[in-house]
Amino acid sequence: MFMEIKKLVNKELTSYSSQIDRAYRLSHLSPILFNNIKEFILRDGKRVRPILFIIGYLGFKNKPASGLYRSAISLELLHDFMLVHDDIIDKSGIRRGKPSMHALLNRHLAGCRNLKFNGQDLAILIGDVMYALALDAFLSVKEKPKHKELALKKLISAALYTESGEFIELLLEIKPIEQVTKNDIYKIYDYKTANYTFASPLTMGATLAGAEHKEINKLLKYGMCLGRAFQIKDDIIGTFSESTDIGKSNLTDLAEAKRTLLIWYTYNNSDKKDKLTIRKLFSGKRAGKSELEKIREILFKSGSLDYAKTEIKCLLDKSEKILKSSKMHNNYCEALREFSRKILKV
């Protein structure tokens, strides 16, 4: 089911990338603007958000409304907008195996002298255009105005809370590690991952379909559980997997001094010596490879991996209980159940 929906989403993205040029004449305004947007949004991706949007809708409807898939890609365009801005913040030169947007634009500007702007500045503007396109795409669906309005508000809320989560996460980096709480960690997970990637797409789709409020609330809770668990798993992979398995150094997350559940648990379950070692990592000084390897040993020794796996299992069990009580069509409930187990397999 997921692959079938993904194919339709990709087809819609291709179609939309051409139609926006006819509608807004972006290539006439600026070929650089249009060509970079088109290339970026057509890069291969998982398309999780539009897929979950479609499942949330069809779980309560027997057939798709006209323009449903066009509306679904609004979530992919919103995602692309956020990726462009995130790469600027993270100073990342690569996105989906290719140069990030600002890196592409800096290449275009290479050789130009006395500029008062750079690729990062242009990329911010392209990201803003992508946000506008996300709203444009969403409005394509032919559904009841009230349902459409409520679903649009959820799209706007997804953008608002995700960017707020990014803001909070950046500020958390200046908070001493000994003052970071589990609630601090989960707040980031909830805003940056759970709501944005899982809960919002599902509830947007269900809202557009006119599902009952209590059913929408069940999908919200399901998505939040799934999202928390998914982020914990992502932290495990980034810390304990082999570098060859994840396509980057398994010390990257530690080198960036990310505040994760693994770090929180380890710090609060370590002796004074190990706590001092961890505090040094989060003091702002650049740690060498041997120091990072030592931190990883402390993480493993503390039992943080087992603790994280237990958290994932509890969240998965909770999400499955929620699905059992849902009135979604059985085939879509089962698809979500299989999806949950697949992405949370550790």
TrEMBL record:
Gene3D superfamilies hit by this protein: Farnesyl Diphosphate Synthase (1.10.600.10)
Gene Ontology biological process terms, A to Z: isoprenoid biosynthetic process
Keywords: Magnesium, Metal-binding, Transferase
Family: Belongs to the FPP/GGPP synthase family.
GO MF, one annotated term: prenyltransferase activity
Name by which UniProt lists this protein: Polyprenyl synthetase
Cofactor: Mg(2+)
Keyword flag Nuclease: no
Protein species of origin: Candidatus Sherwoodlollariibacterium unditelluris
Organism placement in taxonomy: Bacteria, Pseudomonadati, Candidatus Omnitrophota, Candidatus Sherwoodlollariibacterium
InterPro entries documented for this protein: Isoprenoid_synthase_dom_sf, Polyprenyl_synt, Polyprenyl_synt_CS
